[in-house]
Amino acid sequence: MRSLALAFFATALSLTACGGREGSSSDSGSSAKSADAVPPAAVTSEAAAPRIDVAPGTAVPITGAIIEVKMIGDTKGYRFEPQHVAARVGDGVKFVVISGGPHEIAFDLDAIPAESRTQLQINMPNSENGRSPLLTASQETWTVSLGGLKPGRYPFVSTPRLPQGMKGEIELQ
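Below the sequence we write its predicted structure tokens.
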């Protein structure tokens, strides 16, 4: 009895759906447009969280702000300015040599979210094993995309200046 009632309900539901579709196709163009329209909730959620589809193994482009981090070595010591960067998924971080080179940005891959390790390395141009190329000239820059990464903390250092304590961190929100 229960299965008979379920079968009846399913049949009635499918007939109702089919009947509604037939009416839409025979109506004027305005009904067809409303059937093809995206519900407002879907539009709102897409606008709030843009999604970039990229092929697996491809760098995710920067879609947000580009945050500049200066690399400085002077009488005050070696440092990143700012040392702590608050960023959002999709932002980019542009490292600029101001003084005290050479510098190399190296992310601590063991300390970042595990599900982001591979994508971070893919997003790092001209790099290897989570390390940027060696930057030697004043005003030389290197930019990394934070697209496709998970929120969390992404610690980094300037490898040649690590003995002098040159460390920084990106907090991805």
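The two ends are 54 Å apart (CA to CA).
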